[in-house]
């Protein structure tokens, strides 16, 4: 391949990935701000944030297909030249997001005590966690609308608008948290309320952008039952794929909780940092979704292959940089999250393990994005089930052999290695390279 072509690919990847990076890190930045603010309220509050945050992220995370599936479907239609059809499909995704959001918010608020109790935390941790989770559920409908609207814009090859909204929401979150937690002295409830309000504002803003675009192109705005059902059906394999990821994370938090309050507190901060870097690396995967969908929609198989290989190198190098930064800077930030010396020591040990796995993570996220962009959800679902089934005994062995929370994070790295192997196996074949406006 010529240097000119490589340069063009790099510029296209960066055009989509850099704004996507800023938008993607919005949520973990909110959680990092929450962790820093709540952590100084006390170790029980920080542990509660870890448990409640895991449940909330699971409720929202299982609906990530609203962004990923929509990006792929819209990008394919853009590649095929059907702009109006792309926006119509995006509107169907928004309606589906609203319906799911209302249902999940109600279920989360109602079943909060049972969900928190499943982690078997101490009574003081449980009380704080239930409070945080119930208040946070208010923002779930807006969070899902934000996912769907972001997916539409990514499919339209626009990652700058979500970036602007993400920056605004993140700044609002920090201000609201400080005011509610320390100004109004609402404790952990203030953190949950501030984050929910910031996310709601972001969701409303992006939905307004999509609706304005649909009106301009003449796409209908009213609910379309067949379209909504089609969007839901398209998302089923991605839901299964996401559930395997969320199940792995829940198991990670469950085992960390069983290891004690200090372990789960350190794990909460470490996982928030890991999630921040994961979404940073996922920016290239977002570019992969949009570019893969567009290329296959236009029938360009050779171009799809070429840009996939280029993005894999981007993922590897980006992961290496993230790993070096995570470990190299840890003396500067560990104390931000807790004044407890034992939590700080445990967190530093976990961070070293997390840093080692970052280059591998970068390639995993890129390949995941490529196959999502290709609409290869069924394979991703099966691959996720296989990786999770093999990961379960790895995680539980930490409890069986009293390995500690650091050993638990080595086991979690094993889960990512299993994902890499299944994704590389698929990428080397041609089955996923299906062209056309729809798969």
UniProtKB/TrEMBL annotation:
Transmembrane segments: 12-33, 45-68, 93-112, 132-156, 163-182, 188-211, 243-266, 272-291, 312-334, 346-367, 379-401, 407-424
UniProt entry tagged with the keyword Phosphoprotein: no
Organism phylogeny: Bacteria, Bacillati, Actinomycetota, Actinomycetes, Propionibacteriales
Topology term for the membrane: Multi-pass membrane protein
Keyword terms of this UniProt record: Cell membrane, Membrane, Transmembrane, Transmembrane helix, Transport
Pfam name, any one: MatE
Keyword Iron-sulfur: no
Protein name: Putative MATE family efflux protein
Similarity section: Belongs to the multi antimicrobial extrusion (MATE) (TC 2.A.66.1) family.
Family matches, as PANTHER family: PROTEIN DETOXIFICATION 44, CHLOROPLASTIC (PTHR42893:SF46), PROTEIN DETOXIFICATION 44, CHLOROPLASTIC-RELATED (PTHR42893)
Gene Ontology cellular component terms for the protein in this record: plasma membrane
């Amino acid at each position: 391949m010529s240097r000119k072509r490589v340069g063009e690919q790099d510029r296209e990847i960066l055009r989509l990935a850099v704004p996507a990076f800023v938008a993607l890190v919005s949520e973990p930045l909110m959680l990092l701000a929450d962790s820093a603010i709540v952590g100084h309220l006390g170790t029980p509050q920080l542990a509660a944030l870890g448990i409640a945050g895991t449940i909330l992220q699971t409720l929202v995370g299982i609906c990530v297909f609203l962004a990923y599936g929509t990006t792929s479907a819209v990008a394919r239609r853009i590649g095929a030249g059907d702009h109006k059809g792309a926006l119509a499909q995006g509107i169907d995704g928004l309606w589906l997001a609203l319906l799911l959001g209302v249902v999940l918010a109600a279920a989360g608020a109602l079943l909060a005590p049972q969900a928190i109790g499943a982690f078997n935390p101490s009574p003081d941790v449980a009380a704080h966690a239930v409070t945080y989770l119930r208040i946070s559920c208010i923002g779930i409908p807006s969070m899902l609308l934000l996912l769907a609207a972001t997916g539409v814009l990514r499919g339209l090859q626009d990652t700058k608008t979500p970036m602007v909204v993400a920056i605004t929401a993140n700044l609002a979150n920090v201000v609201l948290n400080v005011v509610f937690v320390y100004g109004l002295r609402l404790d952990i409830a203030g953190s949950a309320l501030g984050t929910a309000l910031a996310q709601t504002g972001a969701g409303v803003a992006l939905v307004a952008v999509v609706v304005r675009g649909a009106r301009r192109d003449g796409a209908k705005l009213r609910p379309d039952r067949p379209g909504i059902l089609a969007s839901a059906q398209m998302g089923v394999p991605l839901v299964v794929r996401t559930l395997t990821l969320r199940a792995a994370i829940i198991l990670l938090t469950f085992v960390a909780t069983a290891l004690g309050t200090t372990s789960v507190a350190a794990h909460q901060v470490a996982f928030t940092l890991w999630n921040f870097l994961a979404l940073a690396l996922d920016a290239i995967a977002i570019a992969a979704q949009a570019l893969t969908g567009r290329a296959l929609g236009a029938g360009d198989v050779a171009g799809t292959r070429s840009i996939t290989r280029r993005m894999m190198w981007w993922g590897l190098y980006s992961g290496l940089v993230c790993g070096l930064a995570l470990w190299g800077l840890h003396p500067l930030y560990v104390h931000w999250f807790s004044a407890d010396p034992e939590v700080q020591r445990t967190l530093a040990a976990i961070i070293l393990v997390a840093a080692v796995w970052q280059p591998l993570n970068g390639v995993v996220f890129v390949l995941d994005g490529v196959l999502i962009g290709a609409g290869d959800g069924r394979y991703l679902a099966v691959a996720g089930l296989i990786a999770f089934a093999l990961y379960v005994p790895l995680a539980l062995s930490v409890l069986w052999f009293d390995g500690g929370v650091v050993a638990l994070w080595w086991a979690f790295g094993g889960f990512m290695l299993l994902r890499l192997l299944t994704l590389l196996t698929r990428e080397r074949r041609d089955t996923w390279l299906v062209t056309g406006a729809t798969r």
